[in-house]
Amino acid sequence: MTDNDKKESWFARFEAELKRDHFFVPWLEKVESSTGIKRVYIASGFLSFLALYLVMGHFAELLCNIIGFAYPAIQSLKALESSSKDDDTKWLVYWVTFAFFSIVEFFSERLLDWFPPYFLIKVLFMVWLYVPIEYNGSYILYHRFIRPVFIKNQLQIDQVVNKAVNVVSGVAGSAYSQTKKMTSKSE
After folding, report:
1. What is the per-residue pLDDT for 72?
2. 3-state secondary structure the chain
């Protein structure tokens, strides 16, 4: 298969995907019928604008977080309402992976904010995590990295979590007692 054949094959798959039952298809159909421009070009233009905006836009971080949160949250709610356990597991794996990424990102975000295409790369990464295919990014990262580390260190992780819960409970109890004392004195 030549490079040109690969490009045409990818383009044909992209065009076919734009005709499947997705939430954005009615909008694409309406724009396509009113302008006469093929939906594949409309989608390509929109994605190009989105990519450019994620590199140079003022609210790129907000848009990036919406893209990484909105679709998975909606799909998670649907999974909770379905009787299937498989979709629950799929979205739990996504959220565990998302949480792990968020913790890692916390320590590197200030450095990466100075890298202009950071939010574009982050969006591509998050979409890869939840793209609706069997072996998406969250599946791969969870089963190859997160799960083995968790299983190997589960006892230590549980100990750290229990200590943290005890400290937080102690602080919250102390704060409650102090607040109660202060409010009873003022009465």
Report:
1. 94
2. CCHHHHHHHHHHHHHHHCCCCCCCHHHHHHHHHHHCCCHHHHHHHHHHHHHHHHHHCCCHHHHHHHHHHHHHHHHHHHHHHCCCCHHHHHHHHHHHHHHHHHHHHHHHHHHHCCCCCHHHHHHHHHHHHHCCCCCCHHHHHHHHHHHHHHHHCHHHHHHHHHHHHHHHHHHHHHHHHHHHHHHHHHC
